[in-house]
Design goal:
Helices cover 72% and strands 0% of the residues. By secondary structure, the protein is mainly alpha-helical. 44% of the residues are buried.
Length: 352
């Protein structure tokens, strides 16, 4: 069942062009290489790495590994296809073949190689499932990637890299509860990195645990206080939660993050707009006015902020001020739809 990988177009083209030097394997009867001659394989993930015995037996395999270490992934894939066509190689060289195609950017061919090898060697080899998972994930297909990563995790249940891959693809495939279990297992190992915290917060929100998600965002902002971009990310996510739940405590917590963001970046117009929206929803109209006016100072054409500010002012019985805000908006380069909305609001305010 090797036909699936023998006819890969990109590799045929590479072979025809002679894009890989040094194909020739060891002559029949050549003694196996000793351990000191085995290649450096730091670039090859452990899950697709052939054994030392396989490397010792095959000069072609050693040459392919050397090409990988040099970053010559397409040449390495050509070498591995030739090796597999000429001899009975096991699942790990096939997995390495598929993985090098991923690194070369030939994702469809990589998936084809991995699936053909799984038919040939059966569904269980972790190496082939890892190669298939990588190909599927890079092709934007998280669900089959998740299922394949799970098969690899069975053989390496405590591996943080695999737990992370399972969490990442479970979340991307719309399974936040499953994703959360993997990030919790990483947390028990004390191995959560910043990207894990982001994903864990998203998974918590996806399961409806908004308090837990807010706690993660607050911790991220606190632990990385010198990172304004991260603070902005956490504040915006908290704002989204507060808007979706409409709970007073969530608005308060989102407001605190947004206030920190405006203090860190006084030119962040969107932060002031979100803060004004939160304050308006909480009924704190004076604070909403201050934040929304600051938004318009930074971005005078921010139509949403201007419309909300006019609404806040009208709610405080300050129709004349609301009218001035709307008239100032009409002096900005608005879209046709925005102009129509501003004019409609002016009509609602009545005559001066």
């Amino acid at each position: 069942m090797k036909e699936g990988w023998r006819a890969i177009p990109v590799l045929i083209a590479a072979l025809a062009a002679g894009s890989c030097a040094g194909f020739g394997g060891a002559p029949a009867g050549e003694p196996a290489a000793d351990a000191s001659a085995l290649p450096d394989v730091r670039r090859i993930p452990p899950w697709v790495r052939p054994s030392a015995e396989e490397f010792a037996r095959s000069a072609d395999l050693r040459a392919a590994a050397a090409l990988v270490e040099q970053g010559e992934f397409l040449a390495a894939a050509v070498q591995l296809q030739r090796l597999r066509s000429a001899s009975a190689a096991g699942p790990e060289p096939a997995a390495l073949h598929a993985w090098t195609l991923c690194e070369a950017g030939s994702l469809a061919e990589a998936e084809q190689v991995a699936r053909a090898a799984l038919v040939e060697f059966g569904p269980e080899p972790p190496s082939l499932n890892y190669a298939l998972a990588v190909a599927c994930e890079l092709r934007g297909r998280p669900e089959p990637a998740y299922q394949s990563y799970l098969r690899v995790l069975v053989a390496h249940p405590e591996d943080a890299v695999l737990l992370r891959a399972c969490g990442r693809t479970a979340l991307a495939s719309g399974q936040p509860a499953a994703a959360l279990t993997f990030y919790d297992r990483i947390a028990l190992q004390g191995a959560l990195v910043l990207e894990d915290q982001r994903a864990r917060a998203s998974a918590l929100g996806g399961t409806g645990d908004f308090d837990g998600a807010l706690s993660v965002y607050e911790a991220m902002a606190r632990d990385h206080a010198d990172d304004p971009q991260l603070l902005a990310e956490a504040a915006e996510a908290a704002y989204g939660i507060a808007r979706s739940t409409d709970q007073a405590d969530h608005r308060r917590r989102a407001g605190a993050l947004l206030t920190s963001l405006t203090e860190t970046d006084p030119q962040h117009a969107q932060a002031f707009r979100m803060l004004g929206t939160i304050n308006a929803a909480a009924g704190d109209l004076p604070a909403a006015e201050v934040a929304l006016r600051r938004t318009l100072e930074i971005e005078p054409a921010q139509c949403d902020a201007g419309l909300l500010l006019a609404q806040v002012l009208a709610g405080r019985m300050r129709q004349a001020d609301a009218r001035r805000v709307l008239q100032d908006l009409l002096r900005q380069p608005l879209s046709r739809a925005e102009v129509d909305e501003v004019q409609r609001r002016l009509l609602e305010l009545g005559p001066e």
